[in-house]
Amino acid sequence: DAGVIQSPRHEVTEMxxxxxxxxxxISGHNSLFWYRQTMMRGLELLIYFNNNxxxxxxxxxxxxxxxxxxxxSFSTLKIQPxxxxxxxxxxxxxxxxxxxxxxxxxxxxxxxxxTVL
Amino acid sequence: xxxxxxxxxxSVREGDSSVINCTYTDxxxxxxxxxxxEPGAGLQLLTYIFSNMDMKQDQRLTVLxxxxxxxxxxxxxxTQTGDSAIYFCAETYGNNRLAFGKGNQVVVIP
Lengths: 117, 110
What we know:
With about 120 residues, chain A is mainly β.
């Protein structure tokens, strides 16, 4: 299994531009998570999908951020317009909810390092 | 909300033991986890402990759980250069979400 796949690995853009981050979860997993990691705030959960349905988006910073999961094998996180304070590493993770009596192992992708100038 | 606390930095000599500590808030967590993040990579599950256990040993790793104090620790025996990473503890909350601590960076000195 290739694990969780994220693209691009690095993105440099200018303030005001639209940014789209992509994620392919592990085949057969039914939960998908988007996280943001910064030095100041650590690892923050942005949004969580279960069976392609957004369950909790309370971590999404503001309306500039949106996430979709059109099918079980693909998700996007979009920032429009982007701002310098959005610079961070964005991780996608997937898990199989309900497996092993509640063991919620999340498998992380390698992340997308976003720099907004 | 969930608040997982960790200290930030630990320096250890190769071959020594290292201990990383964590406090958590949700006493109903069924499992508690330790994740490892190597430079430029995502987090990877290192080990976990079921909440009704006090200790779990897995090769060089020993996890201790004190439920009364909501304290979790990870001991790495015979620390090696490949153990240099950031270590995160995590607890489960609401519908298989994980709350992570801020991480503890371990630097192994050869």
